[in-house]
Design a protein that fits this description.
The complex is a heterodimer of chains A (about 325) and B (about 550).
Chain A: E1 5-14, E2 17-27, E3 32-36, H1 43-51, E4 58-63, E5 66-70, E6 73-74, E7 82-85, H2 97-102, H3 110-123, H4 139-151, E8 157-161, H5 169-186, E9 190-194, H6 197-203, E10 206-211, E11 214-220, H7 221-226, H8 231-236, E12 241-244, E13 259-263, E14 268-270, E15 277-286, E16 289-296, E17 299-306, E18 316-321, E19 326-330
Parallel strand pairs in A: 3-9, 3-10, 7-8, 8-9
Antiparallel strand pairs in A: 1-2, 1-4, 4-5, 5-6, 10-11, 12-13, 13-19, 14-18, 15-16, 15-18, 16-17
Chain B: H1 6-11, H2 18-40, H3 44-86, E1 87-88, H4 92-98, H5 107-118, H6 123-132, H7 147-172, H8 175-183, H9 188-217, H10 220-225, H11 230-239, H12 244-269, E2 287-288, H13 291-322, H14 331-357, H15 364-376, H16 381-394, H17 403-430, H18 434-441, H19 446-460, H20 462-475, H21 478-483, H22 491-500, H23 504-531
Parallel strand pairs in B: 1-2
Classes of the chains: A alpha+beta (about 325), B mainly alpha (about 550).
Chain lengths: ~325, ~550
């Protein structure tokens, strides 16, 4: 029976700098929680607090009802049964892929450990590479070995620190899908630290947004995407156009003084007969959609529209906002 | 060109490679002539005598000393490097660089000091007798004048090689690997034993091999402590028997041993990788030790530093001060040392520069020269000096006039050029290749490019190299003994002569001057070590 891994008002500071400040976050079994934030937001530190690699200054880390960390008392990482997956793979360079996976299976005895490890390598499509040393493996293979190694000892939870950002884009989604499928099947709490909003939305059930060590918002991914509590949260989950109250073009939206309009590109709808007009500056195909940059009285606004029917630079177009993807927040609150 | 094997690369010589080929040849001649002499010249009567009665003691002495010194060094240096890298305890930041200071004193200087410290009349035994009331024959006391004593003395000064490379090995491995081990249920001890140590093994082996080459090359300590070794035998075969050919045969055996060491080091790398697969560096967050653990760690490091530096150097200072010794008697020797080490350093520096600038250290000529230079670096000075003597003999030259000065500078350069060339090549390697291409696109000729682009860059890495060349030449004893101009004593030769006469107070002054000079590059290295950016190998 898997248990919730949770942080309760956890704080951690290095000297005067608060890296993590009063964060409470519960990681549910069987769900992947993506922890998003810019660099220096405290994501990795929070992960290290969960793992027991660093002590908490205040608050508690718990697994179920059991307290793992509290001020002055930190259960050693090797006693927590929490798996770790690193961006740099952290495979043991002197051990083969198989030996790496066997490392955490010492308690089973040699032969059962080998069989178990081989099973994991098979699962992650690595059977042929069992005897290879890490430097003989490709990046994607190394990361899959790291995943097998972390999951093989049946940990109580798994923590992943930007595990896919070192891989080249063509490989990333394949490795990610294989990895997260295995993680989901394990049915344990999983934390995925990332700075990539697309990855977070693609693969996580929950998202949590951290900024300057403080938790901004957490919840089911779609909910946070569609109902962000601040402009920063909205921006953390994907590109937005931000326009201050006095500068919003007439007719586009009613924005009270002291507020700002935050709109996602797919929330800008081009419509022939709309009253608000704009001139197209650039229109570029960026994968599935065209990214259209428009000018309205000196204000730039970005829309994502299907390629067919996309306007051309110089065209004048009408536009309106989709209320579900346009938000108004008090401005200046960064 | 990069895809060609070394011999193919060397075969593809262009005229521009001439200077580097010449530099490589100048470096290679002494050792090649020793091999030729060993294989082609008869051994003479002396050889029969040496082979029958001295060979086994020499070989046993060298092998035994090597094995014991390796044991001493590993037992101290590897745990010390681990403590310094992974833990925080009182004095750690200071120990990190203090632990390399023993490199400053050459083995013979340590031997004089330890021989005196541990002797029957020395301070330790005197104190013991005073405390217990025993007479000298009432107790057993470890003797420095034995193989274990020699191994201990040499190890106490050479362990920093192992400490430095082990530390670099521990620092450069991903901390994430250790954290992964912990998250997989391994205790800190198991993480060290099963993860950190195997990953650092090639680095440790490299440092150990380097230290062992120095052990094999030692002459002064073995002679003073009366332990027969191959290097000691080489000098004696030449000096006492006057038999260069017999000496050359002993030298060849020593060479086989040295080559064996190099190969063993290569082999220890094996197929298992030691390189990090990691692309991201995260600095070590040291675990703070508390209570007895913290003090034990500090005491462990302090013991190594005390044995390697404080006790021997302190003893020499004490002896010199007690006898009111001044530097006046060694004024002449100091001048000679500056001239000889200076000319050796200049010669080696020029060779190093030629190697570095020839195709930025990458051309076939440079590849050949770097290979010979790094091989010669592993060869004992006594062997190279013997080679020079063989060449001089072949040319009908005697050690008079300017000949010995040139010959010594040649031997110094042959042995130490690698130490000067490698920093320069490294400086050029760090500079982007596009610099040269930019110069060419601006119409610079190859010569102008070498002079105005490559030379200034190479020189930026040269100051430390030049210093090392000078200090190494200054410390060198056996080659200097064999080749120096008649009645030209250097500091090392003076120290050796005084020590042989058991005039230890007099020997202390030149010994301390050598150690002081040796401290300069060591402190420079410490400074770089403590100021290196994380992730950078010092």
């Amino acid at each position: 029976m898997s248990e919730v891994l949770s942080a309760h008002n956890v704080s951690r500071s290095y000297g005067p700098a608060n890296v993590v400040e009063s964060v409470s976050l519960a990681l549910q079994p069987g769900a992947i929680t993506a922890l998003l934030g810019g660099s220096g937001a405290g994501k990795s530190t929070l992960l290290r607090l969960f793992a027991g690699l660093e002590p908490v200054d205040r608050g508690e880390i718990r697994l179920g009802d059991r307290v793992l960390s509290s001020p002055g008392s930190t259960l050693a990482p090797e006693k927590r049964r929490i798996g770790l997956i690193f961006q740099d793979f952290a495979l043991f360079p002197h051990l083969t892929a198989l030996q790496n996976v066997m490392f955490g299976l010492k308690a089973l005895g040699r032969e059962p450990a080998r069989i178990e490890a081989e099973g994991w390598l098979h699962r992650l499509d690595l059977t042929a590479r069992a005897g290879a040393f890490p430097h003989e493996l490709s990046g994607g293979e190394q990361q899959r070995v790291a995943i097998a190694r972390a999951l093989a000892p049946k940990p109580a939870a798994i923590l992943m620190d930007e595990p896919f950002s070192g891989l080249d884009p063509a490989l990333r989604s394949y490795v990610r899908d294989a990895a997260l499928e295995a993680v989901r099947e394990a049915g344990i709490p999983a934390l995925l630290v990332t700075h990539d909003p697309v990855e977070a939305l693609d693969s996580a059930d929950h998202v949590a947004i951290l900024k300057s060590g403080q938790l901004q918002q957490e919840g089911p991914a779609a909910e946070v995407y569609l109902a962000p509590v601040s402009a920063d949260v909205a921006a953390a989950l994907g590109p937005v156009t931000r326009i201050r109250a006095g500068e919003v073009p007439a007719g586009l939206a009613e924005v009270p003084a002291g507020h700002e309009l935050v709109v996602r590109p797919e929330g800008v709808v081009l419509e022939e007969g709309a009253a608000v007009r704009a001139r197209v500056v650039t229109s570029q195909l960026t994968g599935a959609m065209n990214r259209v940059v428009m000018d309205m009285d000196g204000q730039r606004i970005v829309a994502l529209v299907p390629r067919t029917g996309a306007p051309h630079p110089g065209d004048e177009v009408g536009l309106r906002l989709d209320p579900a993807l346009a938000f108004i927040f008090p401005s200046g609150a960064t | 060109m990069a895809g060609l094997s070394l011999p193919r690369r060397i075969l593809r010589v262009r005229p521009a490679d001439g200077p580097a080929m010449l530099a490589g040849a100048i470096i290679a001649v002494p050792v090649v002539s020793v091999l030729v002499a060993a294989l082609l010249m008869g051994g003479g009567e002396a050889w029969d005598h040496i082979r029958r009665t001295l060979m086994m003691p020499y070989l046993g002495g060298t092998l035994g000393t090597l094995a014991m010194a390796a044991g001493f060094m590993l037992v101290f240096a590897v745990p010390a490097a681990w403590l310094v890298t992974m833990y925080d305890y009182p004095g750690r930041p200071v120990f990190e660089w203090l632990l390399i200071l023993p490199l400053a004193a050459p083995g013979y200087v340590l031997a004089y000091a330890w021989g005196d410290l541990m002797g029957v009349g020395g301070p330790l035994q005197s104190a013991l007798r005073e405390m217990t009331g025993w007479a000298a024959r009432d107790y057993w006391f470890p003797s420095m004048r034995s193989m274990p004593g020699l191994a201990f003395v040499l190890a106490s000064g050479l362990y920093p090689y192992v400490y430095l490379t082990a530390r670099a090995g521990f620092v450069s491995q991903s901390v994430c690997a250790l954290e992964a081990a912990r998250s997989l249920g391994a205790s800190p001890l198991r993480s060290f034993w099963n993860v950190a140590l195997p990953a650092a093994r090639p680095a440790i082996a490299a440092g150990l091999a380097l230290a062992m080459m120095e052990v094999a090359a030692d002459y002064g300590a073995a002679e003073y402590l009366g332990v027969p070794t191959l290097t000691f035998g080489i000098v004696r075969a030449w000096k006492s028997f006057g038999e260069p050919a017999a000496a050359a045969r002993l030298a060849m055996i020593l060479l086989v041993l040295v080559v064996g060491l190099v190969l063993a080091e290569r082999r220890s790398r094996g197929r298992a990788g030691s390189q990090q697969s990691s692309t991201r560096w995260r600095s070590v967050s040291r675990t703070r030790l508390r209570g007895p653990a913290a003090w034990s760690a500090a005491a462990f490091c302090l013991t190594g530093f005390t044995i390697g530096f404080i006790m021997p150097v302190g003893r020499l200072v004490w002896r010199a001060a007690e006898a009111h010794e001044t530097i006046a008697p060694v004024g002449e020797a100091l001048k000679n040392t500056l001239i000889l080490a200076g000319s050796g350093a200049v010669f080696a520096f020029v060779l190093a520069l030629v190697i570095a600038l020839a195709g930025r250290g990458k051309g076939p000529g440079a590849a050949f020269a770097r290979l010979t230079a790094s091989s010669a670096y592993a060869i004992p000075g006594a062997v190279l000096a013997l080679g020079a003597l063989v060449v001089l003999g072949g040319l009908g030259l005697t050690l008079t006039g300017i000949v010995p000065v040139v010959a010594l500078a040649w031997v110094y350069a042959s042995r130490f050029t690698a130490a000067g060339a490698e920093p320069m090549v490294a400086a050029l390697d760090r500079a982007p290749a596009s610099l040269g291409q930019a110069a060419e696109s601006l119409g610079a000729s190859a010569w102008r490019r070498a002079r105005e682009v490559d030379l200034p860059i190479a020189l930026s890495g040269a100051s430390a190299g030049a210093l090392i060349l000078f200090v190494e030449s200054l410390k060198e004893l056996p080659a200097t003994l064999m080749l120096r101009p008649f009645s030209w004593d250097t500091l090392a030769v003076r120290a050796n002569a005084y020590a042989a006469d058991e005039r230890l107070a007099a020997a202390a002054v030149p010994s301390l001057m050598i150690t002081l000079a040796g401290l300069v590059p060591v402190i420079l290295l410490s400074w770089r070590l403590s100021h290196a950016r994380p992730g950078e190998q010092a």
